[in-house]
Each structure stands twice: as structure tokens, then as C-alpha cells.
Amino acid sequence: MVDGISDKEIANKGITRRSFTLGMILASFAVAFGSLLAMLRVLAPEKKGGGYVTSIQPGDALVYARGGNAGASIVASSMKAGDAVLAYPLGKSSNPANLVQLIKLDESAIKPPTDISLTDKGFVAYSAICTHLGCTVSWVANVETPDASFTECYCHNSVFNPAEGAKVMGGPAPIPLSQVGVKVSQDGTLAFTSDFNGPIGPQV
Amino acid sequence: MIFKWLDERLELRKFKEKFLSKTFPTHPTFLLGETALFSFVALVITGIFLGFLYEPSTRMVSLFGALVPAAYASVVRIDLLPMGLIIRRIHHWSAMIMIAAILAHLMRIYFTSAYRKPREINWLVGLSLWGMAMVAAFTGYLLPYSQFSVTATSIAYYMAKSVPWIGDWISRLLFAGEFPSDGTVPRFFFMHVMLIPAALIGLISLHMLILIKQKHTEPGFNRDRREAQGGRRLIGIPIWPEQGVISLSFFLLLLFVIVLMATYIPLNPIETYGPPSPGTPLMRPDWYFLVIYGFLKLVPGDLIFTVLGGKITPETIGGVIFPASNFIAYALIPFLDRSKDPQHYMSNPLRRPFMTSLGVGAIVFLCMMVVAGYIDVLHITPKDMIIYALVATAVVWSISYVLLRSYNRKRGDSAKA
């Protein structure tokens, strides 16, 4: 007997003052700590703008991205067919989305789906950010047959063909690299003529 | 004298009788788990040293006239200290050996069916320890903030981001915003030196407590010895002094090997990688990530589809679904094993044709994924590599199964399972 209720009644109801109190304590703990989950929102900072945001303006000069002459303008005559360099728009190297691979090809080798209007005198430029997992792509030069050179990401061996709109030739990359317009200026240096024609980096 | 003083207050004698005299069964493979434990001790000790000197920040500072991130500069300064480079290498080598020991330990448990009832819980705790050790290793990748660090972390950022439905939020939570951002290094530092070690210590304690409660699976030959003695007692040696002396000597031996490797085998030369810069050189992850690394190379790029609004990409398949399904499969092993009787002895792997050949097949598959990590130097196309991997797995699995079956048939029913 507890407080005039028979043990049998308690057994039937399956709920006692003790179990009720315990349940309430547990529920209070659940509410107290559960409410902390809202803080997870604070721990994940808001998006800056949803992935890579480029800031290339037509007319920006192309400069070397690395090496001894990093930051210096790229002169068209310094590159022959089959050469490639990493380049940034002048003064905008702090944004990694702006990194491009500038390639000089044999003008006749450039085929669709390359946007020919974005090329000039065999110069063609693509985003250097691999569309698989965001590494920077490299240039695999073929000295004997420059046309057989290709772009490869050394991280997981995605291969892109720059003569055909950087379409994926092999490996895990799902989409081609985006093209960006370049032209040779009056003074022989290279300049951008447009922003990228597609998305930059992994589309996950 | 001190012992007597302490004993009067802490009842040490009682503790010795009750705990230190416990029987510890002996088998060489029982040292695999200890290897992992002692490597962890080495990691903690060297980690404390490194923690005093490391600066978790990406602000730019001057180092020999060049502007580099403070984290990178602080690690270069550690390398220049007397013994500094050795300590850092011991830390790195211990991590490699710890994960190797965990895997060897896991294989030992699998092949001797020591995961069976009543040890399913400890199997799961052990798997969590493995996962946690990998996360600990991974968060350590970023801290030197070299070109290698940033490349590896960037890859993992996109893998996290490729999780269907919640990937965007998960990646921002783990990496403190979109990578690269200045928040990532402090957050990884906190996880690497505080959160994950705390979780590891908690899990290791739980692992040991359950082990003490349930005891080891005994070597099979103990069965006959015990029957000869007619007793029910565990056969082995006392924890102290016999097992303790073995363990302490083994710890010293392990430290010797680690220090030897750290002295002569360079690894993670951050001065060679340099601070973060445009351009990704050819680099491969540490050995325990090679399986995922190789698998990522084999997923065809055009494999994109949507499931219930969640986008599945090659990144998702290689970086999320493959590792997750591996862990889930391993976690399910004790619950799918058909034997339900409590297991007190280690099984003879030769007596379990199905499970042993399955394990051997899985190991061959994972090794082929490591080979897949090297398709660029082996000049194999991903499509060919997939075929080689599947054929090798199928051949080894079926041949080992057939061989084991015929071996058991020859031995006849004298086998005791």
C-alpha cells in the first residue's frame, strides 16, 4: 500500500510517483541538453557566397601565378605551341577561384566544343581548379607531338583535353573545366576578355 | 615504507590481490592491441611537446624573409630545434604504426572469430577506435599548413561537402566555413589536441574495462590443457608481475623501433612541400588513406544521379559511400555470424572456410585499391584496374575457399570448429 493505492493498482497503471519524477527529470535533461543542439547552427559559419566566386573583369592582364616571375605579365611570344602556365588576373591573386591555366595550342588543333571566340592566336584558358575534388590541375607536355599534350589533375588522375573544351578524357572528374576568354593585346601581353563560361571547381 | 603509507590509505594490497593478480592468457597476437595502445602513449607524449611550440593560426608572419602562415612557420621552427624534427617524426610514425596495429588487431579478432558473443560490443568499440584514430590522423594533416596539408584538407572538404542532403552544412561545421578559411586551422587544432584524444581515451578505457570484464578469448590449445587440469579457471599468467614485465619490455622495444624509423626514414618534409601556393604537386596520402585514395580514382566521372533530392556524384561514391559502407559492413559482422554460442576460445581460421576466405578476399580487394592509387605510375586505365581488382578478389576468394574446404574434408570430423 502506498498512499491508499494498492500495490496491485500500481502494478496495473505501471506508473508511480517515483517513476513519474524520474521521467520528468530525464525529460528536463533532454530539453536542457537538446536545446544546446541549436548552437550547432552557430558553429557552422554562413556561406560566403556558395563555393567559388570569381572576380575576373574583361581587360584584366594575365600574370604568372608562381615561380620566379610570379606577378609579372605574360608575354605571348614567350610561349610556343604545347606550353602552358598557371595565371592570375593582375592584382586578384588572393582569390583562388581566379586561377587559370593558360595554354598555347596549334590554332588548327582547337576544335569544338571549345568556344573559339574565347581563344586568340592559339591561346586558350581554362579554370585550373579540378572539377573532381578541387586540386590545381597540371600540364603534361608532350615534347614530340605538342598536340598530344593534355591537362591532368595529379590528385586522382582526371584528364582533360584542352583542344576540345577541356572535356574529360578519363578519371573521376564529372564535368569539363570552364573556359575563360583571353586575347593577345597590342603590346604583346595577354588579357582576359570575359569571365568563366561555367561553374568553377567541384559541383557537389 | 611509501608502499606501507599508501597501502594504509588506499588498500593497495587488496587492489593487487583483486586486480593485479588477474589471469592474463598469453598469445603473441595479444600484443597487437598493446602495440596500438603504446603507440597512442607515444603520440600523447610527443603531442604535448609539439603542442607547446605550435601556433594554430594562418596569419602571415615573416620566416627567413618570406611571408608564410604562422602555423607553417611554427612547425619549421620546431624542425630546427634540437631533437625537434625527430620528435615530430616520432609523432607521425607513431600514428602510422598505431593505425597499422589497430588493423592487424582487427584482423586477428576477425580471423579467430573473437568478435562473437559476448564480445560484440567491444568489436563495435574497437571499430570506433579505428575510425577515431583515422580522424585524429586526418586532422593532424592540416596543422603544419604546408602545400600538402592544404591540398589534402581541401580534398576532404569537398568529400564532406558531397554528402547528400546535409553535406553543405556538415562541411561548414567541420571546417569552420568554406575551406580555405582562417577558421579551419584553429578548429582542427582543437579537435586534434582536445576533442579527439579525449574521445580516444574514453573509448580506450571502455575497451579495456569490457576486456577485463569479459576476458580474452583463450588460445585453442588451452582447451585441452584445461580439460587435463579438470578446472574451469582461465589459463595464463598474472597481470603483475609476469604480464606487466612483458608489456613494459614490449613498450620499450616498440619505442626503440619507432625512434629508429623516425631517425632514418624521413616523412612529411614540410620544408620540401613549402607553404600553400598555386599548383598541386604529385602527392599521395599516408598509407591508411590509400584505399580511399585509390577507390576515388576508379569511380567513373559520368556516374551522377539523384536519390530523393540528394545528389550522388563520383565524389560522393568514392569519398562517402565507399568508406561508410565499409565501416557498416565491418560493424555488422558479429550480428551476421550464425554462431550464437558464447565463444571462449580463439577459432582456428583454417576451420572456418567461409569466413576466412571472405576475409582474405576482402583484404585482396583493399590491397588492389591501394594498387589503384598508383595507376598513374603503373600506366593502367581506371577501367582496366577495376577489372583487375575484381578478378583478383574473385580468384583469391574462391581458391582460398576451395582449398580450405578440401583441407577440412581431409581432416574429417576430427575437427572441433
Q: Looking at the structure, what is the overall shape of chain A?
A: elongated
* Spatial extent as radius of gyration of chain A: 30 Å
Structural class of chain A comes to: alpha+beta
- What are the low-pLDDT stretches of chain A, counting only 5+ consecutive residues below 50? none
Number of DSSP helical runs of chain B: 17
- Number of DSSP strand runs of chain B: 6
Let me know the number of strands of chain A.
10
Q: Whole-number average pLDDT of chain B?
A: 90
| Low-confidence parts of chain B | none
**Greatest chain-chain interface?**
A-B, 40 and 47 residues
Which of globular, elongated, flat, extended, rod-shaped describes the shape of chain B? globular
Note the topology.
The complex is a heterodimer of chains A (204) and B (417).
Chain A: H1 7-13, H2 17-34, H3 40-43, E1 62-64, E2 83-89, E3 100-104, E4 123-127, E5 138-140, E6 150-153, E7 158-161, E8 167-170, E9 179-184, E10 190-196
Antiparallel strand pairs in A: 1-2, 2-3, 3-4, 4-9, 5-6, 6-7, 7-8, 9-10
Chain B: H1 2-10, H2 12-20, E1 23-24, H3 31-53, E2 60-63, E3 66-69, H4 70-80, H5 84-111, H6 120-142, H7 147-161, H8 167-174, H9 184-214, H10 221-229, E4 237-238, H11 239-264, H12 270-273, H13 290-298, E5 305-307, E6 310-312, H14 314-336, H15 353-372, H16 375-378, H17 382-411
Antiparallel strand pairs in B: 1-4, 2-3, 5-6
Write up what this structure looks like.
The complex is a heterodimer of chains A (204) and B (417). Chain A has 204 residues and is an alpha+beta fold. Chain A has helices at 7-13, 17-34, 40-43; strands spanning 62-64, 83-89, 100-104, 123-127, 138-140, 150-153, 158-161, 167-170, 179-184, 190-196. In chain A, the strands form two sheets. Chain A has a six-stranded antiparallel β-sheet with strand order 1-2-3-4-9-10, with no helix packed on it. Chain A has a four-stranded antiparallel β-sheet with strand order 5-6-7-8, with no helix packed on it. Chain A is elongated and about 100 Å long. The mean pLDDT of chain A is 84. With 417 residues, chain B is mainly alpha-helical. In chain B, 68% of the residues lie in helices and 4% in strands. Chain B contains 17 helices and six strands. Chain B has helices spanning 2-10, 12-20, 31-53, 70-80, 84-111, 120-142, 147-161, 167-174, 184-214, 221-229, 239-264, 270-273, 290-298, 314-336, 353-372, 375-378, 382-411; strands at 23-24, 60-63, 66-69, 237-238, 305-307, 310-312. Chain B has a two-stranded antiparallel sheet with strand order 1-4. A two-stranded antiparallel ribbon of chain B has the order 2-3. In chain B, helix 6 (120-142) packs antiparallel against helix 9 (184-214). Chain B is globular. The N and C termini of chain B lie far apart (53 Å). In chain B, 36% of the residues are buried. The model of chain B has no long low-confidence stretch (mean pLDDT 90). The chains are: A alpha+beta (204), B mainly alpha (417). The A-B interface holds A 40, 43-48, 51, 65-66, 86, 88, 93, 96, 99, 128, 132-138, 153-158, 168, 170-175, 201-204 and B 151, 154-155, 157-159, 161-162, 167-169, 172-173, 176-178, 180-181, 183, 277-283, 293, 296-304, 311, 313-316, 318-319, 375-376, 381-382.
